[in-house]
Design goal:
The complex is a heterodimer of chains A (about 240) and B (about 260). Chain A has about 240 residues and is α/β, with parallel strands linked by helices. Chain A is built from eight helices and nine strands. In chain A, helix 4 crosses helix 5. Chain B has one domain. In chain B, helix 11 crosses helix 12. Classes of the chains: A alpha/beta (about 240), B mainly alpha (about 260).
């Protein structure tokens, strides 16, 4: 089997300064007094695993277990403090839909902007424009500034843009809980379609039923540590024990 | 290096979109739109001419052209650096959620202001023609100080963008610095008296004054001052280097501070 993601011994550390020093004056006062201390917080501790092509992995864990941090490390948003991440292929990170949207821009302008954020050319986005508007069901609102959109409309637009390409690796961080029931169904269907074409999926969700439907493997994170990784059924059972 | 170039190619679309966004949003919802980038300097030129022309008793009719040239360059520098300073924090939503090379933000901030600046040069040429300052061949040399101006803005922008992430109050501090820079740029007075005095260094070692002075020389068909040109060019190149290095060194940390 071909490995598409390999996470080697990744540790992610954050500075949690109790009082944030963010002014020049404070900085110098504290430097003179030698009070520049930071509390370090490890969001991920020595996490290692590898993902084969076509695997659909559910990522389980309580709030604050490091799921989103792990996704962001894989997507390249965070550079790990220690360890490396190797990846092959085009990644579509759907960590928070509509990252990079501008509120003053209209829906149409945001399609090009967000497309560029994901690395697509204007020409490519022009070709896909109608498809995106169609899927997001935003025909009459496409020339309205985004600040007048409802959060559901924004999420729909973000989802439609992010899924217009055929990525090799899809990172989904609780994105299926947006929109109304009808759109949720539609987006799940679209994702399942994409998965049929052999895309690798990392799926973060608190909805066990959804994880069971979509994934074939799963992992559990607890306080930044990888505590289980394997076939979905076993891991889900273990997780059920954990949350009891 | 090679990696950096392929990465820039990959993200050139985003760079263009960010520049486009800057220009589009600057004058969104105003009736006159981009025309404001010409009216605004024209209005300040009139006010400054009336006030300082009367105050200092300058009566030559090129004085408005003199003011406008200096004022346009100064406002480009102040706007593009202020923009770059805020750029990382302003785009925090994007930075926290997707990977994008971070230098695109300060760089696009400088570039869109520079494009608006080039548009506003139309006003300068119109005013010059009306007041009888006709271009000579030297006008083409104006490209040189304008290029130095671009480099200086990029360099200062990168340095400020980096520091701005860690120190929020730099925004206010920079405003004060910009004001000092404005007074030491000889925008609305002739520099001769100061240049002949003991404190001539406050103008001579101000790279922005050097740029403005050379730019004016090109417009009025005079020879550029070589020392000023070399000094401002060296200053700009060094600032780009320093900016590039500290930005590159710290960019991974940005996300932990915004």
């Amino acid at each position: 089997m071909e490995e598409v993601i390999k996470v080697n011994d990744v540790t992610m550390e954050f500075n949690l300064s109790k009082e944030k020093v963010d002014s020049v004056k404070e900085y110098f006062i504290k430097m003179v007094k030698r009070e520049l201390r930071y509390d370090r917080f490890q969001a991920l501790k020595n996490v290692s695993f590898s993902v084969n092509k076509g695997d659909r992995i559910g990522i389980l864990g309580l709030n604050g277990a490091g799921k989103s941090t792990l996704m962001k490390v894989i997507a390249g948003v965070f550079k790990p403090t220690k360890g490396t991440v190797e990846k092959r292929g085009v990644i579509a990170p759907m960590i928070e839909l509509g990252a990079g949207f501008d509120k003053q821009y209209t829906g149409a302008e945001n399609i090009y902007l967000y497309g560029a954020v994901l690395g697509h050319s204007r020409k490519f986005m022009e070709e896909k424009f109608d498809e995106i508007v169609e899927f997001a069901e935003l025909h009459e609102f496409i020339d309205v500034p985004l600040k007048n959109y409802s959060s559901g409309m924004r999420a729909r637009l973000g989802f439609a843009i992010a899924t217009v390409v055929k990525p090799d690796i899809l990172i989904l961080d609780e994105v299926l809980s947006v929109g109304d029931a009808k759109f949720r169904k539609k987006s799940e269907k679209k994702l399942l379609e994409m998965m049929d074409s052999g895309v690798t999926v990392l799926f973060v969700s608190h909805n066990l039923e959804q994880v069971k439907r979509i994934c074939n493997k799963a992992m559990i994170l607890e306080k930044g540590k990888l505590v289980a990784f394997g076939d979905m059924d076993e891991v889900v059972e273990q997780y059920k024990e954990m949350v009891k | 290096m090679k990696e950096a170039i392929t990465e820039f190619r990959q993200y050139s679309n985003l760079f263009i979109e960010l520049v486009r966004k800057g220009i589009k949003l600057k004058y969104r919802r105003s009736y006159l739109g981009v025309i404001w980038s010409m009216i605004e300097p024209l209005l300040t030129m009139i006010v400054l001419t009336v006030v300082f022309g009367t105050l200092f008793g300058y009566e030559n009719k090129e004085f408005p052209v003199y003011i406008l040239a200096g004022r346009l360059i100064y406002s480009l520098f102040s706007q593009s650096t202020t923009n770059a300073l805020k750029s990382i924090r302003q785009n925090e939503g994007m930075i926290k959620k997707v990977y994008v090379p971070k230098y695109l933000y300060p760089l696009s901030g400088v570039c869109f202001n520079y494009i608006l600046f080039l548009i506003s040069l139309v006003v300068l040429s119109v005013v010059s023609l009306i007041l009888g300052v006709y271009p000579t061949v030297r006008v083409f040399l104006a490209i040189v100080p304008l290029l130095v101006l671009f480099l200086l803005s990029v360099g200062a922008g990168l340095i400020l963008a980096t520091l701005g992430v860690f120190f929020r109050d730099l925004e206010y501090l920079w405003n004060v610095v910009l004001m000092l820079v404005m007074y030491t740029c000889a925008i609305f007075y002739y520099p001769d008296v100061i240049l002949d005095s003991k404190v001539s260094f406050i103008l001579q070692y101000n790279p922005l004054f050097c740029i403005i002075s050379n730019f004016r020389s090109c417009i009025f068909g005079e020879e550029m001052d070589m020392w000023m040109l070399i000094y401002s060019f060296a200053f700009a190149v060094v600032s780009v280097f320093i900016g590039g290095i500290i930005f590159k060194k710290n960019q991974e940390k940005f996300i932990l501070y915004i």
